[in-house]
Here is the input.
Amino acid sequence: MWGDDLEASARRKMAWLIGIVAAAVIAGALWYWSGLRTAPAPPAAAAPAPAAPAATAPAIANPLPGTGEGAALPALNDSDTLAHDSLAGVFGRDALERYLVPQNLVRHIVVTVDNLPRKKLAVDLRPIKPVAGTTRTDTQGDTLTLSSANYERYSPLVQTLAHADVHTLVGVYRHLYPLFQQSYEDLGYPGKYFNDRVVEVIDHLLQTPEPATPPAVTQPRVFYEYADADLEGRSSGQKLLLRMGPANERLVKAKLRELRAAIATTPPRPAR
Here is the structure.
């Protein structure tokens, strides 16, 4: 009997051991598969950052073809002789000796053109020598006006400009244009197009009024001022045309219109 009891006991122990092992296997399997189901998904790859937009060249409203053609240009700082000789072919050498400041020609032309629509014009940077004589006035009762004799001071310079051939002038401008462009960018306008500024300034000057009678002036200090607040508030370029008198102003405007037609593609600004 003891043998039967020992055998039965052994069988019970074996069954109990097998049950423990089976339970452990089942529990391990459940833990493994549960881990697979709840494991966090790997992080999604970050989307690439959008590419920065490509830099675009500045828009040019009035492109000037044929610039820099012909012989190679000197460096800007060495360009006075070429600029002087080129302009002499347009205005005549005698006129240039009389009116032109020969140093830093290109730079002074650029800075003066850029400043004409502004209130102040740097006198020491002008490419043109000061007109001879002093401002002349007339007295009409209690009113002080610009004298017609004052307008005559500007007539020789205006006549020189009026008789210049625009086609030849534009040829010089196109040839020297890379120097003008470099000087304009050096002035603080990187990426801006100088010819667009020239056209803009021409349009501004063409808006200068033409008083029917000599404008009244006052002299609160050393310099004369226009009594009319609208005239006094005008830019340095428009005041310069006003000082020339109506006849000279019309001649300058006619030449500016010719020049604009040769270098611009945009329509003129409507008269105000």
Observations:
- The two ends are 132 Å apart (CA to CA).
